[in-house]
Automatic annotation (TrEMBL):
Acyltransferase found in the keyword field: yes
Classification of source organism: Bacteria, Bacillati, Actinomycetota, Actinomycetes, Streptosporangiales
Origin species: Microbispora corallina
Domain N-acetyltransferase residue range list: 21-172
Pfam families recorded: Acetyltransf_1
Protein known as: N-acetyltransferase
Acyltransferase as UniProt keyword: yes
Entry keywords, A to Z: Acyltransferase, Transferase
Amino acid sequence: MGEIVRLSAEELVESAKGLAVLLQDAVEGGASVGFLAPLDLGTAAAWWESLAPAVAEGRMIVWVARDGGEITGTITLRLEQYPNGRHRGEIAKLLVHRRARGRGLGRDLLAAAERAAIEDGRTLLILDTETGSRAEELYRRKGWTPLGVVPGHAADPSGVLKPTTFFYKRLA
């Protein structure tokens, strides 16, 4: 399955094209991940590159999973910076390429982010995902607690508004 590695800001920029291909695959596959179809590769790469300052400043951590040099998955952990919120973080952009699904990669990426959050002293994580998605099933299986559903919260890649389920998880 390959290895999961945490990216520095420089490595994020160097990996932007591979991450863009992954993001493009997610959008083409119907995932509601913030972008509409069709997603231009250049636009997707520029979006990943735009995260480099947050990674460099320690406000965000990005991991990638690689198999044979190809990026097959990613996850992002946003670390709250406000003084009253430094105990929490947010999981974002858990993506697994359609060709790499069904092998536990999403589970492994999520576990890596949760471990890093604990190591950073975070005791609470939040996330949101499209209601009824495969990701929602994963979060429920991994002990995340649904907080509620917001109807019409985000558009899918075709522009249709879909409900979003919000989750939280208390960390040991």
